[in-house]
Write a structure and sequence with these properties.
Blueprint (H helix, E strand, L loop, with lengths): L3 E7 L5 E6 L4 E8 L3 E6 L1 H4 L10 E5 L8 E4 L5 E2 L13 E5 L5 E5 L4 E6 L2 E8 L8 E6 L6 H16 L5
Antiparallel strand pairs: 1-2, 1-12, 2-3, 3-4, 4-5, 5-6, 6-7, 8-9, 9-10, 10-11, 11-12
Length: about 170
Amino acid sequence: MSGSYVLLQFGSDLFSHRFEDLESRPAFTVDQQANLIVHIAREAAWSQQHPEIMGPRNSYLYFGPSKAPGYLVYGNGPEVAMVNYLRHKKDASISRYFTAQNGKELKWRVSPQKMECLDGRSTVATWELSQPEDVFCARLTIKHSGLTMVTEILTTLCLNRMAMNLNWKL
């Protein structure tokens, strides 16, 4: 099966917002927990519509003091430094690289208005800010090939946006 899946972002707070599909089913929630922990949870109402979805249902972003980069955990997996999901290959590059749990290296082309996640030369997800007349804040379009790592795509999207907003110098 091929195609794309659209998730609408509601809320502009980087540490607390939600994504819904076009049928208004909750897909993901992003909420800040105590002690600067952000929990990203894939919602059953959405994931049950897509049996191809694989990988962890949850991820956790553990921030350091003053919201400095800390570490990330998928499900009950090992702790991995956030900076490992925000790598760049050239000093002046706006692209950020990460290695998915399946071993593939993916790249986010990062900008404040639009971000694209690429697997090689293929785009697997695109995030774009909405228009002023829209009731949602942003739109995330995920290609079918991205469903196998959708939680990682969402997590690294959120992490890249937070890193930009917090002006992390990586």
